[in-house]
Amino acid sequence: MLLNLYLKERGLVESQIGHIISMRALGMTLIAIPAAIILSKIKLKQILILSSILFAVFSFFISSVEATELIAGFSLLGGMSFAFYRVAAA
User: Fold this and answer.
1) Residue 58 · residue 77 · CB < 8 Å
2) Distance between CA atoms of 64 and 66, rounded to whole angstroms?
3) Taking the CB of the first residue and of the last residue of the chain, which one, N or C, has fewer CB atoms within 10 A?
């Protein structure tokens, strides 16, 4: 919700905001099953820490870049890192 409000304040139109939010969902969808396979071979603690750090870094980049395409790309990567966290936490 806060991301939506932030992007609206930056002057993006609703279709651009929807595209950015859907990229995060797409990233989570694309990586969920591969994440489960990878997590069966790696220690969960390391994945939880790394995915949290990566999500924070990608969120920072979302808030600091100007180009809509870069924001969408970082949103996709942020969704992927968040999916690793969610799968590991489950």
Assistant:
1) yes
2) 7
3) N
pLDDT surpasses 90 at 60: yes
What are the structure tokens assigned to 60, written together? Answer: 């920072």
For residue 1, pLDDT over 90 is answered with no
Selection from 54, 30, 50, 52 nearest residue 42 by Cα: 50
pTM: 0.89
DSSP 2: H
Sign of CA dihedral 4, 6, 7, 11: positive
Read off the tokens for 79.
């969704």
Q: Is the pLDDT of residue 89 over 90?
A: no
The full DSSP string for 18-79 is HHHHHHHHHHHHHHHHHHHHHHTTS-HHHHHHHHHHHHHHHHHHHHH---HHHHHHHHHHHH
